[in-house]
Amino acid sequence: MSFESLLAKCSELFGAVETLAAMAAKLRLAHDGISVDARLQSQLDQIVDLVEPNLLEGLDHAQQAVVLADISTTIRQSLDFLENPSRPLGWHHDDPAVLDTQGRASKHIVTRIQSIATKRARLAELLKQPGAFLDIGTGVGWIAIEAARVWPNLHVTGIDIWEPSLALAQRNIADSGMAERVSVRKENIENLREVARYNLVWLPSVFMPEEVIRRSLAHVFQALAPGGTLIFALWETSSEPLRQALTSLGVVRMGGHPWRREEVVSLLDATGFTDVEAFSFAEAELTLVAGCNPASVS
User: Fold this and answer.
1) Strand partners, 229
2) pLDDT per residue over 178-189, tens digit each?
3) Could you tell me the domains of the chain?
4) Strand 154-160 vs strand 131-136: parallel, antiparallel, or unpaired?
5) What is the pLDDT confidence band of residue 244, given thresholds at 50, 70 and 90?
6) Which of 111, 121, 136 is closest to 227 using CA atoms?
7) Which residues contact 110 (CB under 8 A, 6 or more apart)?
8) ∠ at Cα 167 (166, 172), nearest 5°?
9) pLDDT of 149-178, one tens digit each?
10) Would the CA dihedral through 15, 16, 21, 26 be positive or negative?
11) Does residue 199 contact residue 169 with C-beta atoms inside 8 Å?
């Protein structure tokens, strides 16, 4: 490929980055209630309409925040990759902005689990009963806080090994007024030894090496209350090759393994989980695999 051809291809790809930034800018102005020069607003409106008319309409304040966080964390982590391509695999971010936007972008997981509960009566029942929720890889605590808000009968425990995230989690929990129902601690999933405690366990595989998950699943199984559910999250894409490669790249860089749902279903089956079932979401590169600890279930 010639130098000129490379520059042309870069220019083509720049458009996707600039379009995403323009969408986020329009969304932030709406979310924060900020007015700008009418000429700038007109250009932003035109760009978003060219992507898809009414794309950003009808979102409530919370939904706007989730989309903004998702775009922000993607751009920030992409910039980090540009500037630090050789850093070791794994989650090493200590920039509060990266940590916070990643956490805020993940809050929608609670809504996803709620939608799964509409199809799994036992899970729906356990989410209403007094009990506990284990948020593995809690980060800065936004999933834990949202879970406590949505499921008021559950006490939420978050565990993580990354101290910069845990420090922010403590602050976010205190600011949220949820300190009586949400707690976090530094703990590696491999050291989990609780028995029959949790109604629900959340496991985001993207941040964890394959061998760690394989060694730890039996401990997670043991930690579930009778009939309790594990939600194992993996990131999948469509059959479009570039999109699939980019998703796998992101997972590997964050220290995870690019699981496929068939692998996860087989692994949960082999560990002893029952009612193993995969759930996909058309609007997200996300698959959630649910499995139960069947002990003493009537």
Assistant:
1) 200, 292
2) 999 999 999 999
3) 3-85 (no CATH), 102-292 (3.40.50.150)
4) parallel
5) confident
6) 121
7) 143, 146, 147, 150
8) 90
9) 999 999 999 999 999 999 999 999 999 999
10) positive
11) no
